C-alpha cells in the first residue's frame, strides 16, 4: 500500500507550505512580494549614497561627458553565493574597497560595472564574488598648451579606442556578457559623438 507510506511526506509538505517555507508558496499578501521588490532598489540606493563621499561619487550609472576614465579595478570577496545576505555583504565590502582605491587615485567618480540592479551585479562563482569598478576624473579641459584642433581631438580618439578595447577585454574575460557588452559599447559611442 503506497498511500499510507506517503501520508507522512504529504503531511510534512502541507505543514511547510502553511508556514510559507516551500519555494513559490506564500501565506501572505501578494502585495508583500511587490513591496519587497520595491524596497530592494531603495536599499541599494541607500548603500550607494552612504559610500559616496564629498570627493568621490559612487554610482551604478555612467558619468556624464565631463568625466574621463582614469582606471579600472576588479576586486574579490569570499562568500557563499547561495546565501543572499552573504552575497550582498560581499558586494558592499568590495564596493568599499573599490571606492578607497579610486579615492587613492584622485578619482572624482566611481562607476560599479554591470547591468541591472546593484545587488545583482558582479560574478559569483562557487565561493568567490568578483566585482569591477571604473574610476573617472572630472575633465578640466587641460588642452590650453596644445596648438590646433587635431592635437586636442587625438586624446579623445585614444580614449574612445581604449574604452572600446576595455569593453572587449571585459567580455573576453567573461566579466560581462554579450548583451551587456553591446549596451555599454552603444553608450560609449553615444557619449563620444
Automatic annotation (TrEMBL):
Database matches in Pfam families: SHOCT (PF09851)
Superkingdom of source: Bacteria
SHOCT domain mapped to chain residues: 163-189
Spans annotated as Disordered: 136-155
Protein's UniProt name: SHOCT domain-containing protein
Lineage per the UniProt record: Bacteria, Pseudomonadati, Pseudomonadota, Gammaproteobacteria, Chromatiales
Amino acid at each position: 500500500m503506497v498511500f499510507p507510506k506517503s501520508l507522512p511526506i504529504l503531511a510534512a509538505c502541507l505543514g511547510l507550505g502553511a508556514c510559507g517555507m516551500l519555494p513559490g508558496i506564500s501565506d501572505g499578501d501578494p502585495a508583500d512580494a511587490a513591496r519587497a521588490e520595491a524596497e530592494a532598489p531603495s536599499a541599494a540606493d541607500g548603500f550607494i549614497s552612504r559610500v559616496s563621499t564629498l570627493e568621490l561619487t559612487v554610482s551604478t550609472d555612467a558619468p556624464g561627458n565631463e568625466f574621463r576614465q582614469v582606471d579600472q579595478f576588479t576586486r574579490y570577496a569570499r562568500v557563499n553565493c547561495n546565501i543572499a545576505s552573504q552575497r550582498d555583504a560581499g558586494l558592499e565590502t568590495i564596493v568599499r574597497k573599490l571606492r578607497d582605491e579610486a579615492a587613492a587615485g584622485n578619482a572624482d567618480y566611481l562607476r560599479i560595472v554591470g547591468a541591472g540592479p546593484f545587488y545583482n551585479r558582479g560574478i559569483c562563482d562557487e565561493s568567490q564574488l568578483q566585482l569591477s569598478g571604473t574610476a573617472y576624473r572630472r575633465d578640466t579641459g587641460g588642452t590650453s598648451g596644445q596648438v590646433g584642433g587635431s592635437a586636442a581631438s587625438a586624446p579623445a580618439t585614444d580614449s574612445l579606442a581604449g574604452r572600446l578595447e576595455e569593453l572587449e577585454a571585459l567580455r573576453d574575460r567573461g566579466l560581462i556578457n554579450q548583451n551587456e557588452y553591446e549596451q555599454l559599447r552603444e553608450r560609449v559611442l553615444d557619449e563620444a559623438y
